[in-house]
Structures are given as structure tokens and as C-alpha cells.
Specification:
The complex is a heterodimer of chains A (316) and B (291). Chain A has 316 residues and is mainly alpha-helical. Chain A is built from 15 helices and two strands. In chain A, strands 1-2 form a two-stranded antiparallel sheet. In chain A, α7 runs antiparallel to α10. The longest helix of chain A is centred in the N-terminal third of the chain and has 27 residues, at 28-54. The model of chain A has no long low-confidence stretch (mean pLDDT 84). Chain B is globular and about 55 Å long. The longest helix of chain B is centred in the N-terminal third of the chain and has 30 residues, at 60-89. In chain B, α3 runs antiparallel to α4. A two-stranded antiparallel ribbon of chain B has the order 1-2. The relative contact order of chain B is 0.21. By secondary structure, chain B is mainly alpha-helical. Chain B has one domain: ABC transporter involved in vitamin B12 uptake, BtuC. Classes of the chains: A mainly alpha (316), B mainly alpha (291).
Chain lengths: 316, 291
């Protein structure tokens, strides 16, 4: 790596260093908002690791998130806390490998609906198993992790997922994914092992989602399948990543910050018309910001660049 | 006989599922719009039938005659106003898919929000023809039987329309190849809008029929969207016959699971069946090979 290549990782670490002391000054309302934003930032960035370059739209986010939350609910009081997170990551990785290998032949809308069906299947199975063997639908999570602790863990995971994304983009794997997104058949003929590339990144992305679920579980103190496997999570992650722009590493975060804040404000101030306003916000995004905030920034840069050139060559 | 009971109720349920899915199959197969707000229109039609029955005493059969044209016009307008700009700007079928999923997801919340504002979140139902009838030694509620019969009749009429008329042929042409259809003088946009509206008429029909025997509330649209999506994908996108078979399979599986396994597992079995079929046949039971 030459000097220029260090800019991105250093910028990520510097941003994290600026954000790290926030819990020391923020009140509990702001902490709740910050934790929410960070949670979606990790989820959306992890989602875009796989779905950004490959254009495979996954709705399985809630499945892995819920898996993590339930790992914490089951093991949180039986294992030392520091051990639960790696166990959750391992479970997420194993399940993601199985899912990744079995969905290889699906593409387009079939993949979208398959991943959605998968999340629902897991939710139904957990609901059924809890009702039958647990005796209750939900369970309590009494694990002593403070709001600050959750914030710092999420921030750490966010740094990790950004660095991972950076490394993937620079590697052969990153190019392989881009080629798959452009044209999978061509990619295969160019000698790319598309199976390995897709499954590898799908597993990485899903592992991060599972860990986020495990981190977030103690915050609720009570979870049931409809909270942990809420399909709205999958959709919100999708819309946030797309609003920001899934093609860039920092893109999804640009979508998460305004949307997570907007949802919070709408829910607090207009609880009765929340869903209408949410729907209208979606429509506005789709029609007026089609290529995401990243696209707007690129456009702006183009315009500025052209203006700059014109000034430099007034004769043209 | 117990087994006859189970199979009969499974077939009735399956017939309704098939009808719910056929509208979506038209909207997605011909107009290429993955309509996630689909189930909200089902519930809206259910509420229309409920209001007409409880307030004015109008029978749900007559409500069909109101709901279907109304929903046709509404869906036609949705396609013309909301979807046409997306179709125009889409560079590839994949881009249109993502755009339409996002736009109709927004629409889902708007329609659901309006329904919640008018009717609140409580469950409603009404009693229409809730009398038992005997068939092959098994007892079925007359309203369920009527709903299934009407579903079959509407499905048959749709199939005949698509197979035997000029307009139906044009719709199928757009579905098979939207790029080549204009070459033989078919106005693709107009027919896509028509097919989208027709899908809307079918969704209204299924909503009215379901309301005759089902307890529903304003937040339940997603359930119907999911059922319809599963049936459409399982049968093969754009394949009306596939939707019928897949609907019946799901209905039967649900009834059999509830009878012999565990009532709490019906949805899980549905999804497992759906995932299993996709794993063996990645484009559904009757789908064409990869696009």
C-alpha cells in the first residue's frame, strides 16, 4: 500500500475517534437515537457489501439479525458475555454458508422472494418452537449491558465492517463481485469462481448482521419472534442503503443518518399518520433521488468540474 | 370422513389462493411491476364489501360488481401515473424490478395508513350465508363453497379471455416479449396498463370473496401479498396455470398440516414447501429457464 491508500482506513478510524466520546455528553434520548442510527449503519453497510456490487437484492437481513438476537437470549446467561458474540458470529456464518450454497441457482426476483421467505420461515419455526417447548411466545433478556456499552460495541463493529468493505473492494474478490454484477455468465467465462465469490461475501455480510442482533438484544429486555425477525428491518435496511447509494462504501451511511432520524421524528410526532408519511417519504425518494445521495454528490461534482474547466478555458 | 373434510377444505383454500395470485401474476408477468402493495388492495376490497353489507345490506356478490371496476380504474391509474415514469427511466429489467419494489412498498404504507385511519386496527367480519352444507358426507360452510366456486369461475373466464380473444393474445404477446410486441403493432404501454388494471380487478374480487368467511383488519394486507408472491413465484412468473397449481398445492398442504401435524406449523410448512420447490426448480414449477 502506498501513502494514498492509507487515507480511507485512517479517515474511518478518525471518524470513529470523534464519535466515540459522544455517550459521555449525550442524554438518554439522544443515546437511543444514536444507537438506532449506528445499528442501521452497520446493517446497511453489511447489506451493501454483498448486494451493492452483485445487484442481488437480499431481504434476509431480519433472519440473521433475529438469529443473533436469539443467540443472545438463549446463551446470554449461560456463557460469559464476551464469548456470546463470537458464538453468534459463528452461528451466523454457518447458516449463511448453507443458505448461500443453496440459493446459488436463483437470480432476480426469485432470489428476492426466496430470502424474504427464508426470514419468514425462521420466524414461524421459532414462534412454533417457543410456543410448544418454551411455553411462552417471548422471552426476557436480563443481561447487564448499558446503553453506552451497546453504542461502543456497535461503533467498533461499524469500523470493522467499513475496513472489511475497504479491503474487499481493493482485492481480487471485489473485482470478481463487480464482474458478477455486470454479467454473471461473462464473469464465469473470464475464469471467476462465481460460487466462491458470492458465498464468501454473503457469509461475511450475514455474519456482521448476526453480531448486530446479538449486540442489540439486551437493549430490549424482552424479545419475541415478531420483534427479532421483524421483516420491516429488512426493508428499512434496503431503503436506507439504496437512498444513500449502494455502490460506494460510505453510501449506505449517508442514507441511514437522515432516514433513521426521519423515522424517529415521524414516529414521535405523528404516531397516527406514521405509515402514510413513511410511504410518501419512500415515494419521494424513489422518484426524486433515483441514484441515491451518492449519485447527487457525483452529479454536483460533475457540474462543479465542468464550471471549473469552463473558467480555465474561456475561449471554448 | 375426516380425510375428505381435510382435502375439501384444502382445495377450497387453494382455489382462493390461486385467485389472489392470478392478479399479481398478471401485474408482474405482463406489466413487469412487482406490486408489494397488492395485499393492501385485497384488504381495501374486503372493507368495501364489509361496509356495503353492514351499512346498506348489499350482498357481497353485488359488491363484486362495484369493487372490480373501481379497482380496475384505480390500478390502471396507478400504472399510468406512478409506474410509467419508472418504466421510462429503467435501463434494464433489473432496474425496473428494484424501482417498482421500492415505489409499491411506499404505496403499501400509504394505502395501509389510509385504511388504518378510517377503520382503526380492530378485526372485523360479517356473517353472510354462514350455513352448513353437506358434500360427499362432509360439512362445509356455504359461504366458503360459494367463494371457491366464484374463484374457479373467474379463473376460467380469465383463462378464456387470455386464450381466445384478440386483446388476450396481445396481452400474452407483451408478456412473452415486450421488445418484440410493438413490431407487430401492439401498443405495449397501453396493454401493460390494461393488464395491471385487470390484475387490480382480480385482486378486488379476491378481497370481496375472502371477506365473506374471513376475519380481517387493516394491517393484514402484507399476509395476502406474501401468499400471492409465494404462489406466483412457485408456479413460475407470468404463468396463470402455474399459479392455479401452486395455489392448490399450498391450500392442500396447509389443510393437511393443520389436520395431521400441528396448527402452528401451517405457515412454516408453506414457506418450507416454497423454498424446497425453488431449490429444485429455480424458476418455479412451470417457469421458463433463466431470464
Amino acid at each position: 500500500m502506498n501513502a494514498k491508500d492509507w487515507i480511507v482506513p485512517l479517515a474511518i478510524l478518525a471518524a470513529a475517534a470523534v464519535l466515540a466520546p459522544l455517550p459521555l455528553v449525550a442524554g438518554s434520548y439522544w443515546m437511543a437515537l444514536l444507537v438506532n442510527v449506528l445499528m442501521y449503519a452497520v446493517l446497511a453497510t453489511a447489506w451493501a457489501l454483498f448486494s451493492g456490487p452483485t445487484h442481488y437484492v437480499s431481504l434476509a437481513t431480519a433472519a440473521f439479525f433475529g438469529l443473533g438476537a436469539y443467540t443472545m437470549a438463549f446463551l446470554g446467561e449461560k456463557l460469559p458475555l464476551a464469548l456470546v458474540y463470537p458464538v453468534a458470529a459463528l452461528i451466523g456464518a454457518v447458516i449463511a454458508t448453507i443458505v448461500g450454497l443453496s440459493t446459488l441457482r436463483l437470480s432476480g426476483v426469485y432470489f428476492v422472494i426466496f430470502t424474504f421467505g427464508l426470514a419468514e420461515l425462521v420466524r414461524q419455526l421459532v414462534t412454533w418452537a417457543e410456543a410448544k417447548y418454551g411455553g411462552t411466545v417471548g422471552r426476557f433478556v436480563f443481561i447487564d449491558v448499558t446503553q453506552q456499552g451497546i453504542y461502543w460495541m456497535l461503533l467498533g463493529v461499524l469500523v470493522l465492517v467499513l475496513l472489511t468493505g475497504f479491503l474487499i473492494q481493493r482485492s481480487r474478490l471485489g473485482w470478481a463481485l463487480k464482474a458478477i454484477g455486470e454479467d454473471e455468465t461473462v464473469a464465469r467465462h473470464a475464469g471467476i469462481d462465481t460460487t466462491v465469490a458470492k458465498v464468501a461475501v454473503f457469509v461475511i455480510s450475514a455474519t456482521f448482521m448476526t453480531v448486530v442482533g446479538a449486540i442489540m438484544a439486551p437493549r430490549w429486555t424482552y424479545i419475541d419472534p415478531s420483534i427479532a425477525f421483524n421483516p420491516i428491518i429488512s426493508f428499512q435496511v434496503l431503503i436506507m442503503a439504496l437512498l444513500g447509494g449502494a455502490a460506494r462504501l460510505y453510501g449506505p451511511i449517508l442514507g441511514v443518518v437522515p432516514l433513521a432520524t426521519l423515522f424517529e421524528i415521524l414516529q414521535a410526532n405523528f404516531p397516527n399518520s406514521f405509515s402514510i408519511l413513511l410511504g410518501l417519504a419512500f415515494l419521494v425518494i424513489v422518484y426524486f433521488v433515483p441514484s441515491g445521495i451518492v449519485g447527487l454528490i457525483d452529479q454536483g461534482r460533475d457540474v462543479l468540474g465542468r464550471a471549473g474547466r469552463r473558467r480555465a478555458h474561456p475561449a471554448e | 370422513m375426516f380425510l375428505v373434510d381435510v382435502i375439501l377444505s384444502g382445495l377450497i383454500l387453494g382455489g382462493i389462493y390461486a385467485l389472489i395470485a392470478m392478479g399479481l401474476s398478471l401485474q408482474y408477468g405482463v406489466a413487469r411491476i412487482m406490486n408489494l402493495a397488492y395485499g393492501e388492495f385485497t384488504i381495501a376490497a374486503s372493507f368495501l364489501a364489509y361496509v356495503m353489507f353492514t351499512v346498506a345490506g348489499v350482498s357481497p356478490i353485488l359488491a363484486l360488481a362495484v369493487a372490480m371496476p373501481l379497482s380496475f380504474a384505480l390500478n390502471w391509474a396507478v400504472y399510468r401515473v406512478l409506474m410509467t415514469p419508472l418504466v421510462r427511466r429503467a435501463k434494464s429489467p433489473g432496474a425496473l424490478e428494484v424501482d417498482s419494489i421500492l415505489a409499491t412498498f411506499g404505496l403499501l404504507f400509504v394505502v395501509q395508513g389510509i385504511l388504518l385511519m378510517i377503520f382503526g386496527g380492530s378485526y372485523v367480519s360479517y356473517s353472510y350465508l354462514a350455513v352448513p352444507v353437506q358434500i360427499i358426507g362432509s360439512t362445509v360452510a356455504l359461504n366458503r363453497l360459494l367463494a371457491a366456486g366464484l374463484a374457479v369461475a373467474i379463473a376460467l373466464a380469465l383463462t378464456l379471455f387470455l386464450m381466445r380473444t384478440r386483446i388476450g393474445t396481445a396481452i400474452r404477446a407483451v408478456s412473452v416479449n415486450p421488445a418484440a410486441a410493438p413490431l407487430v403493432g401492439i401498443d405495449t404501454t397501453a396493454y401493460a396498463a390494461f393488464a395491471f388494471g385487470l390484475g387490480g380487478a382480480l385482486v378486488a374480487a379476491s378481497g370481496v370473496l375472502v371477506s365473506m368467511f374471513f376475519t380481517f383488519n387493516a394491517a393484514m394486507g402484507v399476509v395476502f401479498t406474501m401468499k400471492a408472491l409465494i404462489v406466483v413465484i412457485m408456479g413460475g412468473v407470468g404463468n396463470i396455470f402455474g399459479a392455479l397449481v401452486a395455489g392448490l398445492i399450498l391450500g392442500l398442504a396447509e389443510a393437511l398440516t393443520a389436520a395431521f401435524l400441528d396448527g402452528g406449523l401451517t405457515l412454516a410448512v408453506n414457506f418450507a414447501l416454497f423454498l424446497g420447490i425453488l431449490l429444485i426448480r429455480p424458476t418455479g414449477l412451470f417457469g421458463k429457464a433463466a431470464r
